[in-house]
Design brief:
- The protein has 123 residues and is mainly alpha-helical.
- The chain has helices spanning 6-16, 22-34, 48-68, 74-77, 80-88, 93-100, 102-108, 114-122.
- Helix 3 crosses helix 6 (93-100).
- The longest helix is centred in the middle third of the chain and has 21 residues, at 48-68.
Length: 123
């Protein structure tokens, strides 16, 4: 656990927002990816598994927020490059999409094009 981690604090703030924007998502995602161990500064970096969990949580929050606040799919599709970057950095986007459990949302918001979201996220 990393109680002193600024990036984790930022993630928790993000998770409390009612409508986080794509730019906020992008910045936070970059901060999480950039996090690494620095012996000189006595900083312990997050493990890959920890980064996966953080990215999953902020991404699920972001997707939920878009789907329940007006369903503006562009707000998700505009992050296609970010999702590609996450994949390139070893984040398992297929597991992330699966873990999102879009079926529950589909019951409530049947007109959302989940195939489009999945393609943007998993390539």
């Amino acid at each position: 656990s990393h109680p002193d981690k600024e990036v984790i604090t930022h993630a928790l703030i993000f998770l409390k927002k009612s409508k986080p924007g794509p730019d906020q998502y992008r910045l936070l995602m970059d901060d999480i990816l950039k996090d690494k161990t620095s012996k000189a500064k006595n900083i312990l970096g997050m493990k890959k598994s920890e980064k996966q969990i953080l990215i999953e949580n902020i991404t699920w929050k972001y997707l939920d927020s878009v789907c329940f606040n007006g369903k503006d799919l562009e707000s998700i599709l505009t992050l296609k490059d970010s999702f590609t970057h996450l994949r390139e950095r070893g984040i398992d986007m297929k597991a992330l999409f699966k873990g999102w459990d879009s079926n529950q949302i589909a019951d409530l918001e049947p007109e959302i094009d989940f195939k489009k979201i999945k393609k943007a996220m998993t390539g």
